[in-house]
Design goal:
By secondary structure, this protein is mainly alpha-helical. The chain has 2 helices and 4 strands; from the N terminus they run E-E-E-E-H-H. It is 78% helix and 8% strand. The strands form 2 sheets. A two-stranded antiparallel ribbon has the order 1-2.
Length: 158
């Protein structure tokens, strides 16, 4: 991994100092900062003290930023996992609803089939009863007709 080095530009503005960049990535160039401060006539002890203060502040801020990033990533992963669980629960509920609807439709279908079968059996029973009656009437009609024919046949013979 290539690290880019940043230059430190410190200039005196009125009574204070202004700087553009003190670090490259997560690393503070302490020696470069001390030399830059000394270059603008800041005594070595003050330059080192300023560098130490800036460095500790930078490290403290970086620590907080890293912790915030970790919390943010943890929060995001927790939220994603929570949303995933919710979606999975919703999918399972939908599957259960579909199964219940299918069971209900199957029950309705079975009920319709039962009603059709019951109607068919009633018609069959009615047909059998009617068939018996028709056969009975046919026999009762054929007996007198046969008797009449026999009588006519007898009367023709004799």
């Amino acid at each position: 991994m290539a690290m880019l080095k940043r230059t430190i530009s410190i200039v005196r503005i009125g009574r204070g100092l202004s700087y553009r960049s003190l670090s490259s990535g997560n690393h503070v160039d302490k020696l470069g900062m001390v030399k830059a401060l000394e270059a603008i006539n800041v005594p070595s002890t003050q330059a080192e003290a300023l560098t130490g203060a800036i460095t500790s502040g930078f490290e403290s801020v970086m620590g907080k930023v890293k912790a915030d990033i970790a919390k943010s990533e943890e929060y995001k992963s927790t939220r994603v996992a929570e949303e995933f669980r919710k979606m999975r629960a919703d999918i399972e509920k939908m599957r259960a609803d579909i199964a219940a609807i299918q069971a209900e439709e199957r029950g309705d279908h079975d009920n319709h089939i039962h009603k059709v079968e019951q109607g068919f059996n009633e018609l069959k029973d009615e047909f059998d009863a009617t068939k018996y009656k028709v056969v009975k009437y046919a026999i009762y009609t054929l007996i007198p007709v046969a008797a009449a024919e026999t009588g006519m046949l007898f009367s023709m013979i004799y």
